[in-house]
TF-B3 domain-containing protein
Amino acid sequence: MEDQMANLRLTDFEFFRIILPGSSKTKLKLPYKFARELGDRELREARLRVAGEGRRPWDVKVFDDDVSGDVYLGRGWQEFARAHDLRDGHFLIFRYDGAAAFTVTVFDETMCRRDYRRHHDAAGTGSSSSSDSSDAAAAAAATAAAEGVGDVALSQFAVTLRQCNLEDKQAQYLNVPMEFQEAHEYARREKVVLRMRGEAWTVRLKHSRRERGQRTAFRYGWHRFCVDNGLAVGDTCFFRVLREGDLRRGGAADDHVLKVAVRKADGTTLE
């Protein structure tokens, strides 16, 4: 009974890891808090599945470091990382199901979520995996259509805040990833609405020319959003298109709404 209650408590437990330069390629450290929540229950094997991919899970060994007491994903992790082309700077979100399985969501150097469905090779995955992939793709497409978003992979991005994002009021800004701003025609918009915790903030966009094209940034109103939500350096913001807005009607930018969730540096979440 205690084990069942413990598993229920860990269901949908989430944490993130960042692939740092120089980090081990053969193992990945699990957060101390997650290892502590596991308690005395030994987790010796785990299954990893990339969100929306639909392929069979990857089997990975789990081990404890006898000296530090830290818990790691070991044998099998390197193969998983290679197969999914994980690189330095990639941001990974793990969701634990309470039964030795993790769903992994990957954000790459563009700060947008990777869409592995485009690279999925159906050969050798079996009919069940192929069916799962089709179902996941259909569900993602349905969600995107309902929200007026054309490409699920470009409907969201994540940014870990730096000091330049939190300067004095007149100097604060947040650059929007190029792929995201082009996908949603930010060059034709003047503002966006950020929604979090049941409230809304209007943020004006600043456009500037660069060698590689136009750059768009969150500018006026971004400071108020940060202050009102107590954001700090090291916090990670996740932006997802909630409503696209119709530019054909003159580009009512206030119709373009982004849902924001924040994972604080201490592991707590705002959304």
